[in-house]
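== Folding the chain ==

***
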Amino acid sequence: MRTYSICLLLLFFAVGLVVADTQGNRSDSLNLANRSNNIDFNAERIISLSPAITELVFSAGAGGKLVGVSRFSNFPSEARLIPEIGDAYNLDLEKIIEISPELIIAWKQASIHKDLDRLNNLGFQILEIEIKSLDDIPNLIRLIGKLAETGERAELAASQYEKTLFQMKQNYDNRTLISVLQLIWLQPLITFGKDHLINEILDVCGGENVANFYPGSTFAIATENIVAANPEVIFDSTATMPEERDFFRKLSSISAVKNDYIYFISPDLIFRETVRALDAIQIACNYFDEVREKMYQ
């Protein structure tokens, strides 16, 4: 698949979209795979290949141009009415070809490279993106708005996001640090490593990921490592019912379990790189403040 790097520079939105052939030197931010070295503006028919991307397209004011979305695209509610074209592991290529989108937006790290290769060979424009920072979210909203020619609405959403995030950082600056374990799966125990956006989300509120020693995004953590880390708080974003969480009994020696500082945050908020990351931050900050008040009362 030929790839083209889209540089997010300060002049990006002033002078327009610049696309350069990287010949395999892929950017760490946004990437475009296409048969030509230009991407068309005013995309009227867009397909999103992840629930998070679907949300970002709506945030950019281009939700009405979505003609296909990946499975589990459930926000906003209008997304549920858009035809599904597969998921992160398997695309319905026949359906996508029939829909004939003008732009397909996918995660750079998606596990559907062969499907994307085929679509690219058929001439479809594919924008591959990767979000590594909370600051990438408004930049991507602006980019989508530029491609869909919904720039004004995109700029409004991006600016509001940036203002809210800045204010949150100001409000929670210099809070007492709290160690936290974020669980995303129970059998086996899966958590986030140092390369995941969760670390930045927790940092806003004065939280420190006890698993940030792992050089990756997600990994299976051993029970003894959790005991050794002794997190003061556990954020549980698993889909397991409370009565099925017997494994917490094995962790009765750690602070979070002894003090019952185990809180739920919706995976749709904390796992998706969207504007709703701000909601996840606020919820996490509220929980941390509750813990601090109890710890120091």
